[in-house]
Predict the 3D structure of the following.
Amino acid sequence: MSELTADGGLENLESLDQMYEDYFLDYASYVILERAVPAIEDGMKPVQRRILHALKEMDDGRFHKVANVIGQTMQFHPHGDASIGDAMVGLGQKNLLLDTQGNWGDIRTGDRAAAARYIETRLSKFALDVIFNPQTTGWQLSYDGRKREPITFPVKFPLLLAQGVEGIAVGLSTRILPHNFVELIQGCIDTIRNKKVSLFPDFATGGTIDVTDYNQGKRGGKVRVRATMEEYDKKTLVIRDIPFGTTTNSLIDSIIKANDKGKIKIKKVVDNTAKEVEILVQLAPGQSPEITKDALYKFTDCEVSISPNACIIVDDKPRFVTINELLKQSTEQTVDLLRQELQIKEGELLEKILFASLEKIFIENRIYRDIEEAETWEEVLSRIDKGLQPFKKQFYREITEDDLVRLTEIKIKRISKYDSFKADELMKRLQDDLAQTRHDLEHIKEYAIAYYKKLLSKYGKGRERKTEIKTFDTISANIVAANNEKLYVNYKDGFIGYGLKKGNDVEMVTECSDIDDIIVFRQDGKCVVTRISDKVFVGKNILHADVFRKNDERRVYNLVYLDGASGRSMIKRFQVLAVTRDKEYDLTKGSKGSKVLYFTANPNAEAEVISVSLSARARAKIKKFDFDFATLDIKGRGANGNILTKYPIRKIEKIVDGESTLGGIEIWYDDIVGTLNTDKRGRFLGTFEGDDKLMAIFKDGSYELKNYELTNKFDPNQTVLLEKFDKNKPISAVYYDGNSKQYYVKRFLVETTTPDRRFSFITDARSSKLLVASTDRQPQIDLTFIRDGSRKHEHQTFDLDVLVDVKGWRALGNRLSKHKVKDVKLLATQPTAAPQKSDEEDDTATEKKDPYKTTGDEVVWDFKGKKKDQMNLF
């Protein structure tokens, strides 16, 4: 491509494709290297590095107006004051490298910082300690060539992992999550010691985090972060911490949107955030706090998923790495920088020792007098060099002319007051420092470990982990979604939906959510599962419609159908565990003319008894008989079933309501995530059926009875005991009474039957606390105590069933000890072998004793297990 020039010549121009390729690559490289992605050496983007360099040049120990710092930084950063100001606020909010004064905004609420002219900053002591060292810094000219700026800082700390970083470049992005200060330092020490290191993110906003899929921060990994949520009361939830990357305003907006869409049902959200986060979520009437909590995690920003992407600049190229690789590189760099600093220090000490030695020789041997008669400068230097000649072998290097000139600069006053003793002391100190420095160089790893430990002791206080690491359960949207719609069914015409108008042929079946699947059974023996909507056609002559729960093994369908080909009536019991949505499944043999004669849907595998009446024209001798569905095995939906009769059926009636044939539900408790399950995860709680209840005892000294629905949750950090409730089992407890400052032991039976309500069985003083709770028959404790006038810790084992009788749940109990109690531990119960009955013993004459019945006779024991007449110790 060419164009005519002013002088009539032709000038070659690049093609548009070539221009685009060259310019775009240049721009992409510039954005990646100079703006968006941090360097591996110091973990900073250029703007951050230039801000810290400007602050170091301005550093006088006092605070500076941020506006002034921005102006100073613009000498190095050519992209305007706004980008510098935003980057500085980001650094200040991380509370690591900058000390701040004024309103710097709030990462929890999203409030912006005040204007740059109103806020102040300076370098923190930590930043001065770990970032700056001109002797080990590489320098380059600034963009206009007037100033000098660092290429990268010699950072002796994994700064990039501590602060985290986000950046969007051209064609790639980076996202490294912040990690805990204390854990990073310990990780560096473990790296030096060649130990395995596990690092996980930690956020200033707190909350909880599931790091199961973190994958060391590489691409493809993710973490799930949840708000810390508690039950304020039965009608209110309170959010104490928010997930990283959200604000209180964005979190509240997401809750309101979920409520407007009908995913959750709440009455009001109140933001009481001040010094600490406090968001109150008031529930609508009839809503379960536990289910609402799960729904908030599922449908709002109370839980967010974050995908890390550790990309950094290595040798002027972007590279994707792991968190452990970053930590290892930082540790190796720190060790190398410490080695360089020691080597520099060694050279400085050698020079100090050299000159101190030259000065001592120059003065004590009166060489300065030999130069008094010298007439030229060359002669002065020559006479000094000649006077030093006998001593040159003791120096570590050759004596240069600069050394000789420096000796001539010693003032007469210093020579006249020269103290040989002090000079020897100085020399010894320098020699000791040199020996220590060389020792540190030889043991550089130990020196680096000591350096990290010093950082930890100096700056680690108050930087403990804020985000709790947990394993989250998987929340099913269908289970926790609020029932915001009603399922209507037109049985005759074959329509279902929440938009149907109730009329002659339309009935309301159940409440559901707008994300539920609906299962439909028809007269022709077909079933189909479809997503609920305003109105959907599923086929005429509907027999049954309900919300479909995938893999619900408890729900069993009982069916009698007429086989159109053979004329026989078939009977079967089946489950529908998993299906393809909107696909029709035939429950009969598929013959033309087949139809359903009898159908029931049973949520707990009930098996009823039916009465079958045959047609009057049937040749069968017995024209009416009963059949029990319990005699049939439960099979899949595709099973043909068994032959009920080969004769025509006139009528089928249910004569006896059935009972479940699956027995009770076996339930386990996963004490990692605090949920119930039937998947054999965690601790087995028992087999539940009917009105069985669960009993939970909590650390605050309360108990609660709950049903065994799998949606119930129990916080592992607050739950002391969880088991199947047995009203005949006494609870043995040891607790501390905050009023009397004494320890008490009590045994009681649960007398309350109100479910989902907590009852406290210890005193309500603020400092009262539960130490031990057990429902074992013979619970034992290990008591650690100190006798009066003694400092020795003593241990003794006691049976709680011997110390106190079973009384009411409101009883105070008996005092545990008159001595100072230091600790109480529950011992594992040893199973007691059943006593062997002799052949002569009459079984019928043996009285059966209630193991929980008390005699009323008080028995008191001392520390050696001997009976006493009075309760002196317990």
